[in-house]
Amino acid sequence: MTTGMSWDVAVIGAGIIGAACAWRLAERGLKVVVLEQGSPAGGSTGKSAAGVRAQFTSATNILLSKHSIEEYASMPEAGYHPGGYLLLVPETQWPSYQVGVDLQQRLGVPTERLTPTEAQVHAEFLPDGLGGCTYCGTDGHVDAHGLTMAYVNRARALGARFLLDTRVTGIQRFSETWQLTTSAGRVEAPLLVNSSGAWSGEVGALAGLEIPVQPARRMVFTTGPLKLPRPLPMIFDLESGVWLRSEGERIILGRADPADVGWREGMEWNWLEPTLEAAITRFPWLEMASLDRRASWWGYYEVTPDHQAIVGQMPGVEGWLNACGFSGHGVMHAAAIARVIAQEALGETPFIDLSPLRFERFERVPQGLIDIQV
User: What positions does the domain FAD dependent oxidoreductase occupy (predicted)?
Assistant: First the structure.
């Protein structure tokens, strides 16, 4: 059977990226069908720590976050909390990192340079080895699940159809149309948006495409209640890779394990000890914290070789748009990504330069600064 309608665009994945794209595409008058193997925000989106920041080192990423955060701030459903991001930068990285701060400020992001002593107003930490700190008060976090459902509801109100619990098992191009074999029947559309998160590489393989996205498991550890003098912003220690922030009376924290790639499931409790050791070195007061194992969780990042997203038209493949591989930046960038994907779909020039994120970059030698991954 088929879905009974002809569609202009098929979006694969109903995480925050796919849901936002569905809304913006429907807003432009396109007939949109979304195929989701589970439920909206049921994958990486719902397991995200939901941080949003514009403290990047490339103009494209800065602008994607800046415009997205502005949209979230206008949406009550987003639960946008501008609690700030505080970055602790080692001496060796401080001179080059200031180039990124200058760029952020030129683009209208209110990032501040702080000495380690000045930064103590936001959190208590040991300053050993730091060259400086940066803080942006418009960074913060959102309710990723509530935000995704808001996009789903907006897309549905404009006629988009969401086929949930529907797995895509085959993708072929016939003439000017993509034909998708799914557990709900056949779906056809001339345009396809691959926004399937950690599964994006597998979705590409269904069409015979090599899209370099793979899953990487991430742990989020949650403490018991702590009495702190003030809520903590999202803090990222660039030296150790540890991040943490307040979540009510608790602290959530994590640290990427670069070896934890592939389809691994469940909490990796062996990663707790090295994470805490690195965290306590910078934040000795964490020694007083207890751990709430039941409140801790895990999820997948969708990572690419350079830890940057793949966005836009797939070269040499008519009607295939990528919006995947965000490597932990999906919630931060979703709102703006949806706008540029809609522009790409209609043959318009995106309002943000996508060239650093296009697939073609894998054919070039990468240059420039690599943005941090948290």
Answer: 8-343
In this structure, the strands spanning 161-163 and 32-35 are parallel
- The tens digit of pLDDT for each residue in 59-79 reads 999 999 999 999 999 999 999
Q: Are 54 and 138 in contact (CB under 8 A)?
A: yes
Tell me: pLDDT of 3 over 60. Answer: no
What backbone phi and psi angles, to 5 degrees, belong to 234?
-65, 125
Place of tokens 């429907």: 26
Residue 137 DSSP code: T
On whether the CB atoms of residues 113 and 134 are closer than 8 A, the answer is yes
The first and second tokens of residue 38, run together, are 């589970």
pLDDT at 368: 45
Dist CA 27 CA 159 (whole Å): 9
**How many CB atoms within 10 Å of residue 319?**
18
Distance CA 144, CA 245 (A): 16
Per-residue pLDDT for 367 more than 80? no
* Distance between CA atoms of residues 31 and 115, nearest Å: 52
Residue-wise DSSP of 39-88: -TTTTTGGGS--EE----SSHHHHHHHHHHHHHHHT-GGG--B---EEEE
Q: What architecture does CATH give domain 9-46+144-213+305-363?
A: 3-Layer(bba) Sandwich (3.50)
Specify the residue for token string 């098929």.
Answer: 10
Residues 338, 343, 347, CA angle at the centre, nearest 5°? 150
Q: What is the pTM of this model?
A: 0.95
Sorted by where each begins, the domain ranges of the chain are 9-46+144-213+305-363, 80-139+218-296
